[in-house]
Amino acid sequence: MFVPLRERVARARSQRADLFVSIHADALPDSTLRGLSVYTLSDEASDREAAALAARENRADIVGGINLSRQPPEIGSILLDLARRQTSNRSLGVARLVVAALGRSVPLLEKPHRSAGFAVLTAPDMPSVLVELRLSLAPRRRSGCSKQRAYRQRLADGLARAISDYFSTYGAG
């Protein structure tokens, strides 16, 4: 079942998620581009549409337990900015933990921590990262299946370790 990008974030927020990890796998024809990278939201990479949508939705939503629609516009703007800063710092923290945990067990791209304005990273009050896997489309041999299974296990173990480290460092909420 396909879930639209913005709906993924909305579902996580409706469940009051303390962390959002989106895992994307792109198959590339060039086998030399294999590796993993972790994205966080960049203020400069965010487009006008995402900024306008977030501003519109967040004014009528609860951010960090405070209903911004009941605040004077100046106060709401300050509270939203503070929430975004804390979320950004926590997102950077989890990205570093993911790179450190996975860098020991799976191939990383040359610059594994990157930033961009991905829709799944735009929640102002929920730390989020996008883990991007780049896989080769090169034909797989029979032995490749067990290698893929081992790779997926190392990936899952590394992500679990990074998430556990994140909650040990930052706690929930």
Main attributes?
4-stranded mixed sheet; 173 residues; 6 strands; two-stranded antiparallel ribbon
Give an overview of the whole structure.
There is one protein chain. By secondary structure, the chain is of the alpha/beta class. It is built from 4 helices and 6 strands, in the order αββαββαββα. The strands form 2 sheets. The chain has a 4-stranded mixed sheet. A two-stranded antiparallel ribbon has the order 3-4. Helix 3 packs across helix 4. The longest helix is centred in the middle third of the chain and has 31 residues.
Describe the strand arrangement of the main beta sheet, using strand numbers: 1-6-2-5
- Oligomer state of the chains in this structure: single chain
Total helical elements = 4
**Pattern of helices and strands:** HEEHEEHEEH
> Structural class of the secondary elements?
alpha/beta
Termini, distance in Å? 29 Å
Gyration radius (Cα, Å) is: 18 Å
Q: How many strands, what sense, and barrel or not for the largest sheet?
A: 4 strands, mixed
**pLDDT averaged residue by residue:** 75
Number of strands: 6
Strand content: 15-25%
What is the percent of helical residues?
A: 40-55%
- Principal-axis shape equals elongated
Model regions low in confidence, pLDDT < 50 over at least 5 residues: 45-62
Give a short overview.
The protein is built from four helices and six strands; from the N terminus they run αββαββαββα. It has 173 residues and is an alpha/beta fold.
Sequence-ordered SSE layout with sheet pairings:
Blueprint: H1 5-14, E1 20-28, E2 35-41, H2 48-59, E3 62-63, E4 66-67, H3 73-103, E5 108-116, E6 128-136, H4 142-170
Parallel strand pairs: 1-6, 2-5
Antiparallel strand pairs: 2-6, 3-4
Helix pairs in contact: 3-4
